[in-house]
Design brief:
202 residues; Glutaredoxin; 2 domains
Length: 202
């Protein structure tokens, strides 16, 4: 089995790193410089985006897709959804990757959607998207139910990222959810690995 992980510690690669650490299978890391991307990455993903993984020749990009793929590829890790978990697992992982991220990026860019145009964007309005997200993380201890799954890697990373940069209000529901995830050994390992790879501050 070969598993190659293309990443940069200042990217969404941190999400995939956490997922890889949760899976617990050996993987090779290729650090990607923004200005000098390796030919092997460009051959796998012509956009040169990170994170990208190559598992036994199969290429997967996009952090949410990587989380979902690894959960299925390594079922022994117990991170794929089961039974009634499947609906909220898929719903909220891809809500986070799609409408919620779009809402956050629009906020960061200073884009305001006119009320009469809300039907044209996937998140309707920023406030409604955040309220829906709060309801999702409040329903259970974890996003798909009472058990940690790969969806929590992606959703939890988003909560951490967006609250850190002031895009998402630090509501109690978000911070309680995040606190449950940050105690996980795989999350701690992933953070330590990526932090050690950060460029030195001058």
């Amino acid at each position: 089995m070969t598993l190659t992980f293309y990443t940069n510690p200042m990217s969404r690669g941190r999400i995939a790193r956490w997922m890889l650490e949760e899976v617990g299978e050996p993987y090779d890391t290729v650090l990607v410089d923004w200005q000098d991307k390796p030919d092997t990455l460009l051959a796998a993903n012509p956009l040169g985006k990170v994170p990208t993984i190559v598992h036994d020749g199969a290429v997967v990009s996009e952090a949410a897709a990587i989380c979902a793929y690894l959960a299925e590829a390594f079922p022994q890790a117990g991170l794929a959804p089961q039974g009634a978990e499947r609906a909220p697992y898929h719903r909220w992982m891809f809500f986070t990757a799609g409408p919620l991220e779009a809402a956050m990026m629009d906020k960061a860019l200073g884009v305001t959607v006119p009320a009469e145009r809300e039907g044209m964007v996937g998140y309707a309005s920023f406030a409604r998207a955040v309220d829906a997200f709060e309801t999702a993380v409040s329903a259970h201890d974890y996003i798909a139910g009472d058990r940690f799954t790969a969806a929590d890697v992606y959703v939890g990373s988003a909560v951490g990222w967006f609250t850190q940069f002031g895009l998402l209000e630090k509501r109690d529901a978000f911070m309680r959810y995040l606190a449950r995830l940050e105690d996980r050994p795989a999350w701690v390992r992933a953070r330590e690995i990526d932090d050690a790879l950060m460029p030195a501050k001058e």
